[in-house]
Amino acid sequence: MHDAYRVDKGGKPTSSRVLRGLDVLKRHGVDWNVLTTIHAVNGDHGRQVYRYLRHELGATFVQYIPIIERATAETLPIADAGWGSHVHGRPLYLQDGSLVTHRSVGPEQYGRFMIDVFEEWVRHYIGTVYVQMFDTALANWYGEPGAMCVHAETCGQQLALEHNGDVYSCDHYVEPGYLLGNIKEKRLLELVALPAQRKFGLDKRDTLTRFCRDCDVRVACNGGCPKDRFATSPYGEPGQHYLCPGYQAFFRHVREPMQAMVTLLRQDRAPAELAATYAQQDSRRPRNDPCTCGNGRKWKHCHGAPRTA
Fold this sequence. Notes:
By secondary structure, the chain is α/β, with parallel strands linked by helices. The chain is built from eleven helices and ten strands. Strands 1-2-5 form a three-stranded parallel sheet. Helix 2 (46-56) links the parallel strand 1 (34-38) and strand 2. The longest helix has 23 residues, at 244-266. It is globular. The two termini are 22 Å apart.
């Protein structure tokens, strides 16, 4: 399930077509996963979006995907108008340029969104709601492969197969420079084993900037997806991930609770036990204190506000 760009002022999706489809799944007892894009419009409403998905829709499996639309100075005017067929002169979308469209989420905005969601989740929903980003972070700190290739050390195993049999290195790289071949001519396993594809996967690790290699949360982040490495690092290096400031803010914020959950797992205990620690701390927290998410609002008006369910 994918939300549209249309959201209200509270960050809630307004697409009735999506909600009608979800009602059909619920009616027939089908397990479902909600995939929500984070973009410039809803990016300031992490807590509200999460509460909506959880309380009003009843979501138990949640994915968040940041919208990052790259463009060059030449393609930005067209890109800002949208990539749809209705746009005159629409070019082929390529992983090129260091600019982003007005719809794209900002780096700090993304980090704030994910922190807001985590602060809500860690108190009330560990073990009952599964947020892919949090599961992957916990797996990385535990030392096991996570579910998201974005934060894996290497990649290259998730190829894209087109309707005509063409195979590309990744579904983010369906463009001429990453065409591996066609399944009418070679078996898929042969294409995966090509030297070019092995290099593609290893480059995710081997082309990290020095700033990224020096980072204290690299174990959880692994530099993000190469498709979004078009920023400049604080060391002046090209190839830094666009979302790096947001990644650092988020992973540093969740590091301590993630490490606490790792300790519980290694003791053969449930990570959900951490919620009791938060409950104890929150019971002693003055309601006028700054919220633990760090956004500057009072606790009582932010993550300490009453939930609807």
